[in-house]
Amino acid sequence: MQDNKKKRAVARWLLVGVLMIVVQVLLGGITRLTGSGLSITEWKPIMGALPPMDEATWQEAFDRYKQIAQYKYLNAHFELDDFKFIFFWEWFHRLWARLLGVVFAIGFIYFLVRGYFRKDMVIPLVILFLLGAAQGLVGWIMVASGLNDTNLYVNHIKLALHFIAALILLCYTLWFALKLLVPEGELVYNSRFKNFTNIVIVILALQLVYGAFMAGLKAAMSAPTWPDINGMYLPDTLWLHSWVSHPINVHFVHRQLAYLLFTLIMFWFGAATTAAIKAKSSYMKQIRWWPFVLVGVQVILGIVTVLSAPKIVFGKFGTFEILAELHQLFAMFLLMALVVARYLVRGAKLT
Predict the structure, then answer these.
(1) HEC letters along 159-213
(2) Per-domain residue ranges for the chain?
(3) DSSP helix, strand, coil percent of the chain (3-state; round to 5)
(4) Is 328 in contact with 26 (CB distance < 8 Å)?
(5) What is the value of pTM for the model shown?
(6) pLDDT of residue 1
(7) What sign does the dihedral 139-142-144-149 (CA atoms) show?
(8) Are 69 and 150 in contact (CB under 8 A)?
(9) How far apart are CA 207 and CA 198, in angstroms?
(10) Pairwise CA distance, residues 57 & 55, whole Å
(11) Is 112 strand, coil or helix?
């Protein structure tokens, strides 16, 4: 009983981390949508926790921002108050990342001193901290790609790398918590269903990468129509330009992956129902509904977000930006739902 109490306490700590990572990703989305990501031109992991404290320091930060292309060619009209607004979102995004690190560090020390960790938890926890540190480094590499005299925004591929690194950290933390919470009797042993679930997760991961490409390339604005893409179902750019760098082609691939994912999850729901009944797993019976519902919501959000693209007003957080944030949030919910399902399903049980 005491061991179960310790496991639940560690799991709750990890789930707090999961929630904070979700918030961090959403803050990253707000930072991008408000055009704030390049406002802080230095990486100071410790001293950067504090914003400028006087007008002279604010002006120094603003002067550094004036040296990059985004200011020169996009925001040359900015006054200091405009800069303070975009600075806030990037600073808060970084502050939340630091707070996340503090919550993990304090929890780790507390549970270590109290003897809550089993030996088999130590290496996964070390990996967890390394993933968190790597995420900060990848974030700075992404920001640095836009701190020059030619690029208005960060590189979309590095943006995708930053996003996926955050999702890997999210899934790893969630998986660790599930190991401490899910009873052995709720697991489903079915190799074919396990492989099917893996395929769905891989397709979703690819879709998330293309979602980040969409964001980085501002691709929603290049084709704010549905079900066609600017009057075409097969864009005339498809065989002429890159499928990872051309906005229309990226938009096309993102849509096709969405249709494929929706179809796969419909079949997956049927397979999950059969597997749950055979294994008598009450957890799987409940969890099978999550991807089924979430993928439908996500498709609808994707469509209305694209259709709202003409309402974009640069520097304003309006209808498009709210829908884009919801689209990102439900993408994370869908990923987590499939990760929970994948945790429950295993290969053939050894006898």
Answers:
(1) HHHHHHHHHHHHHHHHHHHHHHHCCHHHCEECHHHHHHHHHHHHHHHHHHHHHHH
(2) 1-181, 186-351
(3) 75, 0, 25
(4) yes
(5) 0.94
(6) 46
(7) negative
(8) yes
(9) 14
(10) 5
(11) helix
Task: Report which residue type is found at 108.
Answer: F
What's the rounded Cα separation, in Å, for the pair 52 and 62? 10
Contact call for residues 251 and 301 (beta carbons, < 8 A): no
Say what the pLDDT of residue 44 is: 80
Alpha-carbon distance of 115 to 101, in angstroms, equals 21
Contact between residue 165 and residue 135 where contact means Cβ atoms under 8 Å apart: yes
Beta strands in the chain (DSSP E): 188-189, 345-346
Mean pLDDT of the chain, nearest integer = 93
- Rounded Cα distance, 95 and 164, in Å: 20
Q: How far is CA 134 from CA 1, 131, 143, 161, 166, in A?
A: 37, 5, 14, 11, 10
- The model's pLDDT over 192-232, given as tens digits with 9 standing for 90+, comes to 999 999 999 999 999 999 999 999 999 999 999 999 999 99
